[in-house]
Design goal:
This protein is mostly helical. It has 21 helices and two strands. The protein has three domains: 6-186, no CATH class; 191-279 and 360-513, no CATH class; 280-359, no CATH class.
Length: 514
């Protein structure tokens, strides 16, 4: 079931909310949690009922593994660690089979020269998210970051439908106290209003903006995969369209997840904080998919040694973390390369900071840094989106293929440009090219200049803060700051109406495939 489907919006969600508030009015907290669990399993089974048993089995195994770790005396650290390793191996084995089995078979075939047949394996929705979430739970239990385990709370923590399919990746210690808070039983109109606001903003991002951008990006990458040559403006329009599509798609999903949770009185972590405003790649990863960055930092980068064992080891840890982060996104070499490219970017960024210690403190320097960061992020997204390295190469070649009419105009400069890879074989620029590029620039400026969801909701935070906000002050008096008012009610009504008109053919969220 999709958040952007009529069955969800006009049937599932109203029933889930009505039951939640009715049970809460009766005053039974355990029944309230059971209702959340029940509705979450109904939501998950809507896609494929068989995989509900996989989800239940995973939840039960990890909960009782966590209970076993807590029951072992603290001085018996080796046995506790053995149980932890068993739990992690079990989780990685499940995700390895469903997500990476055929990929590994292909790798072995290419290395050894065999021809082992692959199998058609259906990837369970959200397996990367709920598996890594439970790995984090086991590690937190081992390090005694979790004081008390409760089975109902744990099942709700894993299965809670707003974040089950594509995150945010949450910690048990963030959700369990909220589930056991008696105030959860009381109806809170402000929670409902704020949740609806954030949800509608996310829905608009997805169905109106992201899906429209997909119509621009898809044909360009399809042409590249089919071997058709691309011109400069078409290639850049396709790459930038996908960059913006992915942002609005996943940011929209995260807003919807946070908004839905808030309707039920729960807060999920912030997952995006204007990543295309980032002035460096380091800053980008503090803003993009924040809960994944947090997971990679806490459970991979730091255990590998972080930056505590010398410069070379630091760079190696960065590269290893990002390579595995790329593989997490998909079973393909293009995803691994994308992760490695970001690892290389981070190494360069850290190296540059050692040499250039001046801060970016003027509007023009911040603008230049943002442009450079977005440029390199967009280049990396080409590999993330392309189905093959050949397709990615053709898009990149197109990004250097200027109109033939420009060669004479540039004169001697064209000779220099040719030496660094530029070509002058594309068709002359059309009026449609001007229009497309103008719209893409406008969307980038909107992301830079318009407050994001967290800034709009600054007086009524809708999520757990996981990002150290440094640029909120400029928005404190913005007319877009949310409040329970008639003006905002009218604005939400307009956004909702526009979004509903775009629901005729709901599309999946891009991160569903991960």
């Amino acid at each position: 079931m999709l958040f952007n489907s009529t069955s969800f919006l006009f049937f599932f969600l109203p029933v889930a909310l009505f039951g939640f508030y009715r049970i809460g009015k009766a005053g039974r907290l355990n029944f309230l949690i059971i209702w959340l669990i029940f509705t979450s399993f109904v939501f998950y089974s809507w896609w494929n009922f068989r995989f509900v048993f996989l989800l239940i089995g995973s939840i039960c195994f990890n909960y009782y593994t966590g209970k076993t770790i807590t029951s072992i005396q603290k001085h018996n650290k080796h046995y506790r660690k053995f149980i932890l390793i068993v739990g992690i191996v079990f989780n990685l084995s499940i995700i390895g089979y469903f997500k990476y089995f055929n990929f590994f078979i292909d790798v072995v075939d290419n290395v050894v020269g065999t021809s082992v047949p692959t199998y058609q394996i259906i990837l369970p929705l959200g397996i990367s998210f709920f598996t890594f979430q439970q790995v984090a739970f086991l590690i937190d239990v081992f390090h005694e970051k979790i004081e008390k385990l409760d089975f109902l709370s744990y099942v709700a923590f894993v299965s809670f439908f707003p974040q089950l399919i594509a995150g945010p990746i949450v910690h048990y210690r963030e959700i369990s106290p909220q589930l056991n808070d008696p105030s959860l039983k009381r109806f809170n109109g402000l929670d409902l209003a704020a949740g609806i606001t954030v949800f509608v903003i996310g829905l608009f991002k997805k169905v109106v903006i992201a899906d429209a951008l997909a119509l621009r990006a898809g044909p360009v990458f399809a042409m590249a995969e089919n071997g058709e040559p691309l011109g400069f403006f078409a290639a850049w329009a396709g790459a930038l369209s996908f960059s913006l599509q992915l942002y609005f798609d996943f940011s929209g999903y995260s807003d919807m997840a946070i908004g839905l949770a808030r309707m039920f009185g729960l807060r999920l972590p912030v997952n995006f904080y204007s990543p295309y405003r980032a002035a460096s790649i380091i800053d980008f990863w503090r803003r993009w998919h924040i809960t994944l960055s947090r997971f990679l930092l806490e459970y991979l980068y730091i255990p590998l040694g972080g930056n505590r064992k010398g410069r070379k080891r630091t760079y190696g840890n960065l590269m290893g973390t990002m390579l595995l982060g790329g593989l997490w996104h998909g079973a393909g070499w293009t995803f691994v390369f994308w992760g490695g490219l970001h690892g290389f970017y981070l190494m360069l960024n850290h190296g540059w900071r050692r040499v250039w210690k001046r801060s970016i403190n003027t509007w023009w320097s911040a603008g230049v840094a943002r442009c450079f960061t977005l440029f390199f992020v967009t280049i990396a997204w080409v590999f993330f989106r392309a189905e093959s390295f050949q397709g990615a190469r053709r898009v990149l070649e197109g990004m250097l293929n200027l109109p033939s009419t420009m060669e004479e105009r540039l004169g001697a400069m064209s000779v220099l440009m040719k030496t660094i890879g530029f070509q002058f074989q594309a068709a002359p620029m059309s009026r449609q090219n001007y229009t497309d590029m103008a719209w893409l620039v406008i969307w980038v400026l909107i992301l830079w200049l318009v407050p994001n969801t967290q800034q709009i909701m600054q007086k009524q935070y809708s999520a757990i803060e996981t990002y150290h906000r440094t640029d909120d002050n400029s928005w404190q008096r913005s007319i877009l700051t949310w409040k329970a008012s008639k003006a905002w009610g009218v604005m939400l009504g307009v956004l909702t109406a526009i979004s509903i008109m775009h629901l005729s053919q709901p599309t999946e969220f891009l991160y569903f495939q991960f």
